[in-house]
């Protein structure tokens, strides 16, 4: 059975910290990073646990600044009859 995983790439300098991506993420792994400020003076979004990303791409579709790219990976599990 195949399992889909994702890799979220954030262009931090383009992110305005609007938070739209945090709302649409079904895994709730995107949060505004209140400890960072980018060159534009915004607090960008950060990924809290990349291993939980399902690669749906909702965050990238919702981002008004095209600051998010999602790469999808499919891993195939081998079933062994015992």
Kindly describe this structure.
This protein has one domain: 2-Layer Sandwich (Alpha-Beta Plaits). Helices cover 12% and strands 29% of the residues. The longest helix is centred in the first third of the chain and has 5 residues. With 82 residues, the chain is α+β, with helices and mostly antiparallel strands. The protein contains 2 helices and 4 strands; from the N terminus they run βαββαβ. The protein starts with a strand and ends in a 6-residue tail after the last strand. The strands form 2 sheets. Strands 1-4 form a two-stranded antiparallel sheet. The protein has a two-stranded antiparallel ribbon with strand order 2-3.
Q: Which features characterize this protein?
A:
Alpha-Beta Plaits; single chain; 2 helices; alpha+beta; 82 residues
Overall average residue pLDDT: 92
Main sheet strand line-up: 1-4
| Number of separate domains | 1
Number of beta strands: 4
Give the CA-CA distance, first to last residue: 17 Å
The sequence of SSEs as H and E is EHEEHE
By CATH, the architecture is named 2-Layer Sandwich
**Structural class category:** alpha+beta
According to CATH, what is the class? Alpha Beta
Summarize the structure.
The protein contains two helices and four strands.
Question: How is the secondary structure organized here?
Answer:
Layout: E1 2-10, H1 20-24, E2 30-32, E3 45-47, H2 58-62, E4 68-76
Antiparallel strand pairs: 1-4, 2-3
């Amino acid at each position: 059975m195949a399992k889909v995983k994702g890799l979220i790439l954030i262009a931090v300098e383009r992110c305005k910290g609007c938070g739209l991506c945090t709302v649409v993420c079904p895994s709730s792994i995107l949060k505004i990073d209140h400890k960072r400020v980018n060159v534009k003076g915004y607090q960008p979004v950060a990924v809290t646990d990349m291993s939980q990303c399902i690669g749906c791409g909702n965050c990238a579709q919702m981002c008004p600044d095209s600051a998010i790219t999602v790469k999808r990976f499919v891993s195939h599990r081998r079933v062994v009859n015992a």
